[in-house]
Amino acid sequence: MSGKFVATNVKNIPPSGIRKFFDLVLEMEGVISLGVGEPDFVTPWHIREACIYSLEKGITTYTSNSGLLELREWISKSFKRDDGVDYNPRNQILVTTGVSEAADLAFRAVINPGDEVIIPEPCYVSYKPSVSLAGGKPVPVPTFRENEFRVTSDQIEKSITKKTKALVLSYPNNPTGAIMRRKDLEEIADVVNEHDLMVISDEVYGKLTYDGAHTCFSSIAGMKERSIILNGLSKSHAMTGLRIGYATGSEELIAAMTKIHQYSMLCAPITAQIGAIEALKNGDSEMEKMVKEYDRRRRLIVDGFNKLGLDCFEPLGAFYAFPSVKSTGLTSEEFAERLLKEEKVAVVPGEVFGECGAGHLRCSYATSREQLVEALSRIEAFLGKI
Amino acid sequence: MKEILEIIESNPKIPPKEIATMTGLTEAQVASKIKEMEKNGIIRKYKTVIDWEKAGEEYVYAIIELKVVLRSRTGYDAIAERIAKFPEVVSVRLISGGHDLSLTVRGKSMKDVAFFVAEKIATLEQVQGTVTHFVLRTYKQDGDIMFEKERSERLAISP
Fold first, then answer.
1. Of B7, B21, B156, which has the smallest distance from its Cβ to A303's Cβ?
2. What is the pTM of this model?
3. By CA distance, what is A353's nearest residue in B?
């Protein structure tokens, strides 16, 4: 009966499509899961050690709302070094409890009721609901295999109305593994300028690219003032549960986000912030090792799918492959459900990440080589039965 | 080449076909590169790390530090090579600090190891003194931690 107390805009949000598979997997044993959106590496020891040491010293207080200054300084250095973009650690960087919080803050900081936000799909599951909860209207733009799941400036321009306020970019992309070339982003920047939009760019997989470096959106001329960059250490340094994200942008935008943050989250956990300082200071070599290992597995799984006749474009970022199952005649949901029940391999159907993802599966290769090889052989067995 | 070595360093049993896919080389290229590296000694040997205690075999290990006096015209290499030929000696290293050579010796019992050192090593002309440290327990060996493996307990499905 207490359901009547739930707010309408919360009721209107559809439940996550992942939930159903999660429940199914829980009941089964011996499942190989390619459905996991986080690294299989344990957080590097030097990072854990730094966290433990800080606890031993009794460092367990709040930090400033923006996060420890030393951490913001390291974040600033990493932008300068890797992307050639200057952010002032004192007022252009906000440390958040994971990138999810940063995304939510960004939407709430810029959306007025009825504002439209363009969201290329398939994409991470939280943008649409976050935009809706902030009172905005999500406007999905589909991307396709033919264009390697990149969104084009043309597509964006066609979706713009008088109410359009912002554009979301999330490359390297979850679930497709697509990346954007500098040239693509420059064309988009022109449209953004022309129509006076702002951009929220989620670049949490930015350090995980396999053929050429990632381009940070604010490194495009004129875009620093018009964008909020979201990033974090969860994927690059295998620190998902430590929940450290950050947002960078102009002083005005970061101040607006900080206002919401100080009344909701207050600050990110101090232990995790200390681990994050250690990660940015001394974590490059461990990160490079992990990226190398992902790259090997990536080649293994992409090659495997293509040999099995499941057309898979080459993902150049993140740790997901996004093969098509259209050749089997099954929908991706049927495929995923039967594969789980008959061969005990868990994958996530593409439509969970947007309608245009239908017909594809998101397969994470953040799992050991042995498991990937075994999963591929089970998928082969399954294909024989269809 | 370095890429192949990195892949097989911790597991030499990965089939060349998989290495080929992971590196973007052909299977034949991988096989011939490995063969070449075996031949020219970049790949010294393939080895199995065994927990002998678990297998029910009792071995005693000791680390022996040696002080060496060099004879004219022969260096450390000569004495090290001599010592290395004993099958009981698992490793020989030239070290800095208070001693010159450090050996690891394996035997069936403490008595076994002690007698070996006393009879075969200490009696060598260049050896001036020995210090024997018996190993009580091994916690990490060849990069392999002997404690229970760390696993990240992830949710089976996450966005």
1. B21
2. 0.91
3. B159
